[in-house]
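tokens incoming
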């Protein structure tokens, strides 16, 4: 039975990945922060929590030694681009320096035991900044535009450095991936939850930033499946995980209102310049040919069905609040 250690196991992608690996017969362990110990009860049955700190290399080493994993999958991150502008130093520590500590622990452990430990880094399309070519692939120049992307770019490059040293290290370059488990601090879930509340008469309007920004939006469980394939696949490399389609935030809003039968969505939306980021890529769209060819992976949901699923979940939450 292969053993996996997941950081960020309580997040959107981590929770789906945990369920995926358990279904595939993995023994599963998850790293959680001391202040999040209460959420350990929400982990799926069969997942063992370990309290640790990504900023403490000794803590990471002790947990890796105790678990003896076949794969370490790093999903933990400060995941908001907007927050990264407010907390650039924290973003650098968690999204960048912590990855250096993890990679070093994994490589040293592999050399000591003679057992190859696969390492999967959750990279991001934000490392590409504002690319001149679309779609982007693994050869697209890395040129981030924000602190989040810059920290992810450091971790992405470092993963390649350790791979050159002999570590079985991969970067999954994840494009935007959504689900009902996405927090409302993200614009997609802000939209779907807001639409559900507008329908119920609990909210009058949606206040958003730049509606023209385009992103490649996929279904989070599909992306968890991709990460699981890379973790088990023994083909360390960089892999773009994307649908190959991009849609604007305006299209996302339109699809969300369409799910409740409303076509004149513009009358419910206000654009607030204060919500527009200092620098934002106008169009990110990924080419996942390498992932599809090597692992047979492909998306299972269309853009419209992703938005509809999120709206339907939020309609249910409005009808039956927790």
């Amino acid at each position: 039975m292969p053993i996996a250690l997941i950081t960020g196991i309580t997040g959107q992608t981590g929770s789906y990945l945990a369920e995926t690996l358990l279904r595939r017969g993995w023994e599963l362990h998850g790293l959680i922060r001391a202040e999040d110990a209460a959420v350990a009860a929400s982990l799926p049955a069969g997942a063992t929590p370990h309290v640790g700190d990504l900023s403490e290399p000794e803590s990471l080493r002790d947990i890796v030694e105790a678990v003896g994993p076949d794969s370490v999958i790093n999903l933990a991150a400060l995941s908001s681009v907007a927050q990264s502008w407010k907390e650039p130093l924290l973003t650098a520590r968690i999204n960048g320096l912590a990855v250096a500590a993890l990679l070093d622990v994994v490589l040293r452990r592999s050399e000591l035991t003679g057992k190859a430990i696969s390492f999967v880094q959750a990279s991001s399309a934000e490392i590409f900044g504002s690319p001149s070519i679309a779609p982007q692939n693994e050869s697209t120049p890395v040129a981030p535009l924000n602190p989040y992307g810059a920290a992810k770019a450091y971790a992405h490059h470092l993963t390649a450095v350790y791979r050159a040293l002999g570590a079985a290290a991969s970067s999954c370059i994840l494009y935007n991936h959504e689900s009902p488990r996405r927090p409302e601090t993200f614009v997609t879930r802000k939209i779907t939850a807001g639409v559900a509340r507008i329908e119920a008469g609990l909210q009058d309007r949606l206040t958003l930033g730049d509606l023209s920004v385009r992103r490649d939006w996929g279904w989070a469980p599909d992306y968890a499946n991709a990460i699981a394939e890379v973790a088990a696949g023994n083909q360390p490399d960089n892999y773009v995980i994307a649908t190959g389609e991009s849609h604007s935030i305006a299209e996302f809003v339109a699809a969300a209102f369409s799910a409740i039968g409303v076509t004149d969505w513009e009358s419910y939306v206000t654009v607030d310049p204060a919500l527009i980021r200092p620098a934002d890529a106008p169009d990110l769209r990924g080419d996942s040919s390498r992932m599809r060819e090597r692992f047979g992976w492909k998306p299972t949901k269309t853009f419209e069905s992703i938005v509809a699923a999120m709206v339907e979940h939020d309609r249910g939450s409005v009808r039956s609040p927790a």
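note: The chain has two domains: 3-177+217-241, 183-215+246-319.
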